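re: ur question from earlier - yeah i can do the single chain one, its not a big deal. heres the input i used so u can compare w yours
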Amino acid sequence: MPTRQLFSASALAVVDQVLLSALNFAIGVLLIKLATKETYGLYAQLFALGLFVNTLLEAWLGGPLTTVVGRLLQADKATLIARVYRFQMISAAVMAVLGALGVAAVFFFEEVQWESQHWLDTPLGIEFAFAAYVLTSGLRECQRSANFIEHDVRTVLKIDLLYAIAVLIGMSILAWQGWLAIDAVLVTLALASGLAAWRGHRSMPVAQVAAHPETVQTAFQEVRQQGRWAMPGAIVGWLANYSYLYLSSLWLGVIAAAELNASRLLMIPIALAAVAWSRVAHPYASRLLAQHDWAGLRKLSALSMLALEGLTLVYVACLYLAYPLLQQHILGEKYAGLEALIVLWGVYFAINTLRWIGTTWLSSYGAFRLLFWQGAGSLLAMLICANYALSQWGIRGAILTLILIEVLELLTNWFFLLPLVKRRSNQALSPVSAPTH
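and the output i got, formated as tokens:
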């Protein structure tokens, strides 16, 4: 794919992520205005847990598949994608069960006191609703990954548009009837994801007769092998980036988690724009690396940095200037005084976008073991720093800790890990043939 087509596809992917960003923002604003801080704080933690499950699925199969599939013929590629998709469906069901257990852990360790409004609005009912949400959203994410690999961003946009429409209709009904409880929101998201997953299933690549069955089998084993390191790497990476939400709740209470997430909610467009870029750039970078086209990769890196960093700086500046209006019409008095948190989140995401580019290139190399050890080190540093920072600076300490971790990962990505895997790649026949060295 030429660079021009890459950025054209990236533009569509950004539109897709803007759609999802606006949807998540609308849900957050609705809960901020109409629900209690306790309800919104718990929703923020469950939503982050749902992202964690989808991150695991992507690391277990989606990411390694994107790395491996670029060198296969079309018939072999379709066969491999269909095989991995079947495996992902089973994995999503397993993740749903584990997700329900994760919700039980949130209720248990934080000793959440929940006042039930009806028979489903109980810890057990919320666990079942969350499991349904995890299953259907996992299937939708699997289909999105497959279409991104095929560079069919239009189909991804159609899937997410259907999902967004269904969520908006469902949430409007809940707001109208006054049913904005956690269980009702999760069931709405689950039904919308299920409808979108049904639509996406019809557009999945159809398995063909593989031109080289032994090549497909070898590639599938390579996907599994890379996933064994990518998945624990995703776990420690997610913990390093999101455990602040749970630590803040443990240290300062669930209201602190609500304020942290309310301020971060305004930054969702930046986070999703970076994700949109990576979903398109990852397959392209894998092919550049397979061809040892270092000049093309340097050009892509420079353009990506300029685009993402420019978008981040402009957005944060506009957000800061518009904060008085946001305070008056969206956040309300319950979430007054979040300006300092918004500035800190702006610094965090300015660094995060640069670090994310390096992490995407490392994934394209297949350097999942290195990413695991980096994530493990970041998690250890985060746990040490967060406990001190939360006790000294309260909510601000959580974001300051995240900024420190992003700086460390940014430096190690660009000045140590990427040069290391490039040297190893130059000594091998293909950069994706030795991902676990």
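The radius of gyration is 21 Å. not sure if urs matches, ping me
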